[in-house]
Amino acid sequence: MFTIITGAQFGDEGKGKIVDLISDKYDLVVRFQGGDNAGHTVKVGDAVYKLHLIPSGFLLDSRVLIGPGTVLNPQSLAQELEILSRGGIHIGPDKLGIDAKTSIIMPYHIELDGLKESSRSEKIGTTKKGIGFAYIDKVARDEIRLADLIDKKRLLARLGELASQKENSIRELDGNPSVVMDNEFIDLYVSLGKQFAPYMTDVSLEINKALEEGKNVLAEGAQGTHLDVIHGTQKFVTSSCTIAGSACANLGVGPTKVDNVLGIVKAYITRVGEGPLPTELKDDVGEHLQQVGGEFGTTTGRARRCGWFDLPLVKKAVFLNGYTELALTKLDVLSDINPLKVCVGYELDGMSIKYPPELTADLARCVPIYDELEGWSDDLTHVRQFSDLPEAACRYVSYLEEKIGVPIEYVSVGPGREQTFKK
């Protein structure tokens, strides 16, 4: 069985805890795009793990893989492994594999990212971690891959080919070009290459062999649907394809192998950084969602903008991903809000529309049209099965399921593994 899991909104939907919940059913859990600009938090008992690169399936018996469609900062990965090791969790090459073709985020990518964002008159809201510039190099065939990193001669030869280009790019942005050939950085990356050499693998081969043998594979995306570099709210997007179809291309698995596509969606909506968010709330309700929901970025710590559930955006996510099932997270955060609102369409230039306009500038001008639903005051964090939810909460879930047209299979009422249950 091959399952793909993606976020149905702007990221931060709670993919990590759903992967953690279901990964005991999967032999392989694989990350298929993004870099350490994404983050997921997994809580098991009293232990909290904040990760950026390692798929959360490592907590159970799954082997976890980082696919070649990702961009990898080896310093970040080394730090994650060290943090986990201090917590008593050792992840060796038997547990983690990294594709040899994975693009490496170099120090000059990070330098260029920060300089470019600072020079923009209209900010994108990049995390300044070099993600976009690493993807630019991948497309331009100027990347440095994991396979290059583990061979010092090959790395130095590759850097020699690229150095003048990167130095000139940094100078044009008034930065310090010495970062490109800095000996300290080169020595560090050579040592990281030696550290990760035993982890190097062919992810496509591993996945296809596992599927041939009747094993189960879970492909995990980062960010969310509407941050997709092609189909998202361009230019306020990430630098990779976040939708389910890209999992096949990024991992080297044919689309006929896909059995399920699981979408993760919050009971409201959030967004980090710039870009349109039609249902954004800048009032007490928005502050309630932010504070009660702990809506602060795992990677950046930035406060997330919060708004009512946006059905048109989720309907678009259903079309883009082909979801077969959904998981609804953070239902507990809506307690003590009455009435609840759900955006069912927009008004744009005097017309009522049910689907997001294609252009980002038009989406930014959309005025939401709402349905109102009865709220509830009960604390949901102790609920462990759907039938024990208050009637109003059950109606809210059923309403969303009917409007979206995809079954909601999981409901989450807190960060703990035990707080997510089958509907």
Automatic annotation (TrEMBL):
Name of this protein: Adenylosuccinate synthetase
Instruction: Using the UniProt record, name the top-level EC class of this enzyme in a single word.
Output: ligase
**Per the UniProt record, which EC number(s) apply here?**
6.3.4.4
Recorded hits in Pfam families, A to Z, give:
Adenylsucc_synt (PF00709)
Residues that hold GTP according to the record = 11-17, 39-41, 304, 330-332, 412-414
The residues that the entry says bind Mg(2+) are: 12, 39
Q: Does the keyword Cytoplasm apply?
A: yes
Q: Which SUPFAM superfamilies match?
A: P-loop containing nucleoside triphosphate hydrolases
PANTHER family per the UniProt record, alphabetical: ADENYLOSUCCINATE SYNTHETASE (PTHR11846)
Which CDD domains does the entry link to?
A: AdSS
Q: How is the cofactor bound?
A: Binds 1 Mg(2+) ion per subunit.
**One MF term in GO for this entry?**
magnesium ion binding
Q: Which GO terms describe its biological process?
A: 'de novo' AMP biosynthetic process; IMP metabolic process
The highest taxon in the source lineage is Archaea
Where is the major localization of this protein? cytoplasm
The gene coding this protein? purA
**Where do the coiled-coil regions begin and end?**
none
Looking at the UniProt record for this protein, which Gene Ontology cellular component terms does it annotate, in alphabetical order?
cytoplasm
Subunit relationships: Homodimer.
